[in-house]
Amino acid sequence: MVNWDNPCWRGDGSAGPHGLAGFNGNGLLLLRICAELRLILSNTFFCLSMRLKATWVYPRSRHRHHLNYVLARRPDQQDMLVTKVTPETIDLIFDARQLHEKCQEIQTDLYSTFVDLTKAFHTVNRDGLWKVMQKFGCPERFTHMVRQLHDGMTARVTDNGAVSEAFAVINGVKQGYVLAPTLFSILFSAMLMDAYRDEHPGIRIAYRTDGHLLSSRHMQTTTRVSKTTVHNLLFADNCALKTVTEEDLQRSMYRFAAGCANFGLTISTAKTVMHQPPPCTEYNAPRINVNGAQLKNVETFAYLGSMLSRNTRIDDEVAQRISKASQAYGRLQASVWNRAVFE
Q: Residue 256 has what pLDDT?
């Protein structure tokens, strides 16, 4: 939700004390109409102080992000379809695309499973979390303080105006709580360590940090080339498993499912497998199973807002962005663009 109750929008000074940045008549008209409709103008349209820039909280990230090119009001929250990529996701999107492109270049298969957990934050076993925190070296006093914030928690349910009796909440971390992502990450890390303690399939990569990364001749040497293995890409409660063979992906999925079962986490049934074959080779759909169910295969997948596909072209990404922008613009047709004042 975007907060519209800002001091620079009150009274007649809807443009704020920082000026209009050389706006023409249409810019003034836009400001007036937006003030009448109580619409939000981001810093793109007129100058705002850095500390007063409009921000938005994405439900799954729980971080505030600056808005660009967005108009919104409370009844039109569903219209906010075009959002800026957050700094936390840029690195992961870059990593995912680099893996796709490099595997294409070296003629290697790439198998990806994008796993989502069912109500991950709400199903965390608290007793297990306190033990994991102690194992990870958290001070006993800190663990006790965090535990006090969760012990004795109760909740009520509202149904058709009627409020239920209070009931105890014994699992999960507090949604929206500033420590919730960190607490879940600690438990999730312990789960991955337990699941892959004997074997951890992944993609082996070689790299240099001395300026000769793009030189194929220098990459053949063994003195200054470092090697590592990419096992998965992690963001919040999402996990993308990466391997170069179908057998490795199946073993990785079995271990991941076993680890989730040991820590009380549930894998959602809507999982996705994407297989990117080498160029000019026949595509054979992989058959990956977990908990007795076969995962579905897709040609494209929206990973953190960016479209990934079997090939390395960005046609699907561009088409998706154009579609979302068109939808956001169309939803404002009746409330803004069709007003006679804009004719």
A: 92
